[in-house]
C-alpha cells in the first residue's frame, strides 16, 4: 500500500468516526448489478455529450420514497427510488440525469465543497468521506458511506441557486439534443412538481427544496424544448433498459400483489422477471421457479437473469443450484463485484472445503472492485476463517465494523488482526489504519 493510499484510507476511517452518530438516520443505498448497468447505459450518451467520461460517471439509487435527485460528488449522481418509480419513460429519467450532469460539468460542485468545509457536522464529513473514498476509484462505495446525511444537511449541501438551476436546465437540454433525446421530457419532469412552491416546506418533495422551481424556470425550459424540437430519435434500447431497471426496482420495493396485478398479462422477459420476484416475495417458491424457468428459456444467456436465479435459489435455501446459477453469471460477467459477492455467498452456504476456497477467491475479487460493501466483508471474513486465515478474517471484520461506524468493535478486531499477521504485511497495515482511527474515536 502506497503512502498516498494509506493516507486516503486513514482519512476515510477518521471520517467514518465523525459519521457514526448519524448512522441511525442512514438511508439505504440499493445495490443491484442489473439496475446499475441499466442506469449506466442510459447515462453514457449524455455523459459524452457533456464532455465527461462515461466510465467514471455513476448513477446510484437511494431507497427513499420521496422524489429527488442530486449530485453527490464529481462523478456520482443519486436518484431516489421514489422518483425512478414515478417517472414514466427513459427520456424523463435521462432528463433528470442530464440536469445533474450539467451541475457537474458547470462546476457547481465547487461551491458545494465550500459548503462542506463550513458545515462542521457529521453529515458534512460524511459527504467529504465520499469524496475521499472516490479518490481511490470506488465511487459506489463512497456513495454508500455518505448516506448518513440528515435531510437538513442534504438541503444545505445539495441545494442549488436559481442561477445554477437555470444554467443546468439549459446545458442539460443541450446534452439531450446532442444525444438525440427530446428535451420535452425535461418539461414533463418539471410539470410533475408544478405548484409545489406554494405548499408548506413540510409538504414539498425534496426535489423542490434542493432544485428551486419557479415560473421563469419552467418557461425557459419550455423554450429550450421548442428550440430543439425535431432533434429526437426513437431509442428502443433506452426504453428497454429503463423498463428493466424500473421493473426490477418496483418488483422488490412495491407490494407483490400490486406487482402481480400490473404484470399479469405482460408476456415479455421483463414481465416474467417481475412475476418471479413477486412470487418469491409472496412467498410462493413453486410459482417463482416456474417464472424463472420461463425467463431462463427466453434470456438464459443474460448474466442478470442468472444472478436473479441465483439470488432467489439462495434465499430459498437451494444452495447447490444457487451456486451453479451464480457461476454461470460470473462466467458471463467476470468483473461485476455484486455478482462475484453473490457467488461467494452461495458457495459459503454449501460449507465444504473446496467451495470455501472458491468462495474466498470470488470474494477477494469482489473486494478488489468494491472494498466498502459490508455484506461482502462479512462473507469474506467467514471465508478467511474457514480457510484457516484468522488474521485476515479479523481484518475484514474490523473493516466491516468501521464502515458501520462501530469503531470500538472495529478496534478490537483490528488489534486481534495485528497480533495474528506479520508486521508490515498488507493486512497488518489495513488493521493498523483501523486501530489508529478507533483510538482517535475513543479519545473524543
UniProtKB/TrEMBL annotation:
Its cofactor is Zn(2+). Residues 38-223 form the Peptidase M48 domain. One of its GO terms (molecular function) is metallopeptidase activity. InterPro entries: Mito/Outer_Membr_Metalloprot (IPR051156), Peptidase_M48 (IPR001915), TPR-like_helical_dom_sf (IPR011990). Residues 1-26 form the signal peptide. Keywords: Hydrolase, Metal-binding, Metalloprotease, Protease, Signal, Zinc. This is M48 family metalloprotease.
